[in-house]
Each structure stands twice: as structure tokens, then as C-alpha cells.
Design brief:
mainly alpha, Tetracycline Repressor, domain 2, elongated
Length: 205
């Protein structure tokens, strides 16, 4: 639910994320966002020129929120980079609680729907996903070096982890529960364990 104690602009941005997660971008009306935020349309147009203007601002809001959540997450604590990646997957799994609108990805939902119809909004959301991919790349680079793993780039594996996670959200929407998404993340964890060899090799530096 959107906090009524926040300022009206923030409430509109939070409401947009909730409404788009529930209905999709095309079906999300300005009236729906205002109702969720508990503000008038006059308040909406005080802050935003149009729905797409709101969409761009919501993408930035989502990016900032996600960056804050993941910056302080526990998966950064382990000394071993492989353990950090596995803890990252565990943390993502721990977020699969509540209604689908509480844990599915706003940015991924928008990109899937608007990549041709609203290219600027889609690009902004794609940028948020790319920024998150970048936060994983260095840990993957270190993990590959520690285990002597080659044959692919850290960036490609970071993108693959996000492909699995975004796909897990889609399956959750198909199934109507978080269970199938959690199952996908369990498979991702096992894949990373096998790929990066949890036991350090003797010749690793």
C-alpha cells in the first residue's frame, strides 16, 4: 500500500509502481494511479505533464529504491565472491513474499510491454535493469578468477541471472504464486554452484 504520509509526488510514484505491477503499463490509467495514491488529478498534473512523464519518473524512482535496497543487503557480507553470489540469489528468494504486486519487477514489466509503444519509458526501465546487472558483474569477475573459470564474460553471466529472475516473475504471474519463482531461483543457485565450483581449486590465486 502507498503511504499517505509521503508527499504527493512520492505517493504518485509509489502508486504507479503498484498499479503497473497489477495491471500493466497500458492499462494503468492516471485515474487509477491517483486513486491508489489518494490524490486528485489536479495534484497529478501539478507534478507530471502526462502518463509517460510519470512513467519516466517512476522508472527513476524504482531504480533509486532498488539501488538502496540492494546496497544494504546481506549478500555483500561474505568474503568469498562465490558465496556473495549465492547469498544474492538467497536474498532475491527472500523477497518473494506477499502479493505478486509486492515483489515482481516494475522495470521488467514495463520493458516487456512498452519496448515498441513507449520507447523512452522502456529505455528508462531497461537502464534500471542494466544498472542492477552492473552491480553483480564485479563479484562474478572475482568469482571466476578465484575458481579459474573461463569461457564467458562476467557481464554475460550477470545478464543471465537477471534473465532467470525476470522469467521467474513471469512464471509467478502465470501460476499466481511465488512458489514457482522460488523454484526457479533454487535452480539458478544450483547452476551457479556447479558453474563456479564452490570448492576453491589448488591453483587458484
Amino acid at each position: 500500500m502507498v503511504s499517505k504520509r509521503a508527499d504527493s509526488r512520492t505517493r504518485l510514484l509509489d502508486a504507479t509502481i503498484q498499479v503497473v505491477r497489477a495491471k500493466g503499463y497500458a492499462a494503468a490509467r492516471v485515474e487509477d494511479v491517483c486513486a491508489e495514491a489518494g490524490v486528485t488529478k489536479g495534484s497529478f498534473f501539478h507534478h507530471f505533464r502526462s502518463k509517460d512523464d510519470l512513467g519516466l519518473a517512476a522508472a527513476a524512482h524504482w531504480d533509486a529504491h532498488a539501488a538502496s535496497v540492494f546496497a544494504g543487503a546481506p549478500h555483500h557480507a561474505p568474503a568469498d565472491p562465490v558465496d556473495r553470489l549465492l547469498a544474492y540469489v538467497d536474498f532475491r528468494k527472500s523477497l518473494l513474499v506477499g502479493d505478486l504486486t509486492d515483489f515482481t519487477c516494475f522495470a521488467g514489466t514495463v520493458v516487456q510491454e512498452t519496448w515498441r509503444t513507449h520507447p523512452e519509458v522502456s529505455a528508462a526501465c531497461a537502464g534500471a535493469i542494466d544498472a542492477h546487472v552492473a552491480t553483480l558483474t564485479e563479484d562474478i569477475r572475482q568469482a571466476m578468477a578465484a575458481r579459474g573459470v573461463t569461457g564467458f564474460t562476467p557481464e554475460s553471466l550477470a545478464r543471465h541471472t537477471q534473465a532467470v529472475i525476470q522469467g521467474a516473475f513471469i512464471l509467478a504471474k502465470v501460476d499466481g504464486t511465488a512458489a514457482v519463482a522460488a523454484e526457479s531461483l533454487d535452480h539458478l543457485r544450483r547452476y551457479l554452484e556447479l558453474l563456479l565450483d564452490k570448492t576453491p581449486r589448488k591453483d587458484a590465486t
